[in-house]
Design goal:
Layout: H1 2-15, H2 23-36, E1 38-39, H3 45-56, H4 66-74, H5 78-100, H6 106-115, H7 127-144, H8 148-159, H9 182-198, H10 201-212, H11 215-223, H12 229-243, H13 251-269, H14 275-284, H15 287-300, H16 311-339, E2 352-353
Helix pairs in contact: 1-2, 1-6, 2-5, 5-7, 6-15, 7-8, 10-11, 12-13, 12-16, 13-14, 13-15
């Protein structure tokens, strides 16, 4: 059932051209219905149901996330909460994709959204983080418009749903449309390589997390787990692709590009500690527009002219235009397959609806 719905949503956007553009609305509506009527789907569904029941019994969660607690209070039932948050999530991503991609590239955005399990499937289980992520996307728009008060207000709202968002306040100075210079690319490469190879990220992360007292993130930190070398190598491909193509982005898309670059950096840091993968999810959502736009921009450059004086440059242009985009899409499919055969994610394998309660 899960695979059928996700494929159908992707396939509908693939057909959504010209007079069939309305199919993209049906695709997102399908994802909304899938998310809104889910029952016991995902690792944390029961935990959120327990939290909701506690709030309605008058027990305070005391977790420093008052807006989530307030949201639970005003919702008449847990299933309504699921439907409302699902609507907010899917509508936010619908706007992100359709407002930033041409119609004939929406299918790539949808492909990334449904087949990268970090973006759709896992967010169904991380309700607080998902709400905070969506609010933060609106804050990013304010950062691009250079409206600091609006940005701070939205980040504060997001942090009241998930307190790890307090760490996003300084990002305002990073989220600009100023082009990244060559020397900055070199600094990023050297800095990331040094941190991944040498830094004691676990101690640093635990010191930061202790300030926010986030039990979930502290749990991931204390486990001491880290991503495999294979997973890190695959993430490196995404890192290089966005880093060396940032220069083809401009305006708001450049801001999104920088955010996605940060996401891939956190993915690399997960080689030292898996907890960084959780943080990565907050930013990775913008990949649904950043990657398609880079693919579009590289295609618009026209035919590649062979430079016999710099063969390596010509080879890179060929790889960047014809090989890397398809390779990244294949990696996403392989990760999707790996996700749905890993026992730890078994609660995502089977789908039930609230109608099963009848």
């Amino acid at each position: 059932m899960v695979h059928i719905v996700l494929f159908l949503a992707f396939f509908l956007t693939l057909l959504a051209r010209g007079k069939y553009k309305y199919l993209q609305y049906i695709a997102f509506a399908l994802l909304f219905v899938f998310a809104a009527i889910r029952y016991m789907y995902g690792n944390d569904y029961k935990n959120y149901m327990t939290m909701f029941d506690m709030v309605h019994r008058g027990v305070s969660l005391n977790d420093g996330e008052p807006l989530f607690e307030l949201l639970c209070k005003v919702m008449p039932s847990f299933y309504v909460l699921i439907a409302v948050t699902s609507g907010f999530f899917v509508f936010t991503i619908y706007r992100l994709i359709t407002k930033n991609l041409p119609t004939n590239y929406v299918w790539i955005g949808m492909f990334l959204f449904v087949y990268n399990t970090n973006l759709f499937v896992l967010n169904l289980s991380s309700i607080r983080q998902c709400i905070a992520m969506c609010v933060f996307l609106h804050a990013v728009n304010m950062a691009y418009k250079r409206k600091p008060l609006h940005y701070v207000l939205l980040v504060v709202i997001a942090a009241m749903f998930h307190k790890i968002l307090w760490t996003m306040l300084p990002l305002y100075f990073f989220l600009t449309d100023k082009p990244v210079k060559n020397w900055q690319v070199i600094v990023i490469l050297l800095g990331v390589a040094t941190v991944v190879a040498l830094a004691d990220l676990q101690s640093l992360a635990q010191n930061v997390l202790s300030v926010f007292n986030d039990k979930n993130y502290m749990h991931y930190s204390n486990l001491g787990l880290h991503n495999s070398l294979r997973a890190t190598i695959l993430t490196t491909l995404f890192f290089f692709y966005i880093l060396f193509n940032l220069r083809c982005l401009e305006g708001k898309m450049l801001v999104y590009g920088k955010l996605y670059l940060l996401s891939t950096v956190l993915g690399l840091f997960a080689y030292r500690m898996t907890m960084f993968g959780r943080l990565q999810m907050l930013f990775e959502i913008v990949s649904v527009v950043v990657l398609p736009v880079i693919m579009l921009k590289t295609r618009e450059r026209g035919p590649i002219i062979i430079n016999y004086k710099n063969v390596l440059l010509t080879v890179w242009e060929c790889v960047n235009k014809f090989v890397l985009p398809w390779l990244l899409l294949v990696i996403i499919v392989l990760r999707y397959y790996s996700f749905f055969i890993a026992e730890i994610w078994e609660p995502f394998f089977h789908y039930d609806t609230i109608f099963s309660l009848l």
